[in-house]
Design brief:
about 90 residues, alpha+beta, 4 helices, four-stranded antiparallel β-sheet
Length: about 90
């Protein structure tokens, strides 16, 4: 599956912005049918980083959110800057 069809857009809120700095975690809205393994592989391919863990949940609006933890060597802040979040 194409990585661009799995990772849809960043999930931006005050909480997710704090997680970028505090926990080295970045959140994205992802395709609802994608599983954690597919999300991990797509993110690693798109951003050339190493993912340590992926947590997902579905919002009341029906969107699937993936919280992606990165290893200590890769900074979530750098990815956010590359995407233009800051």
């Amino acid at each position: 599956m194409d990585p661009y069809s799995i990772i849809l857009r960043p999930q931006l809120s005050e909480k997710t912005m704090n997680q970028i700095y505090d926990n080295n975690r970045i959140s994205f809205v992802v395709r609802r049918s994608a599983n954690k393994k597919q999300i991990k592989e797509a993110f690693q391919e798109l951003y050339d980083v190493t993912v340590s863990k992926v947590n997902t949940h579905i919002t009341p609006r029906g969107e699937k959110i993936a919280a992606i933890d990165l290893v200590d060597d890769d900074a979530a802040e750098d990815i956010a800057v590359r995407m233009g979040v800051f």
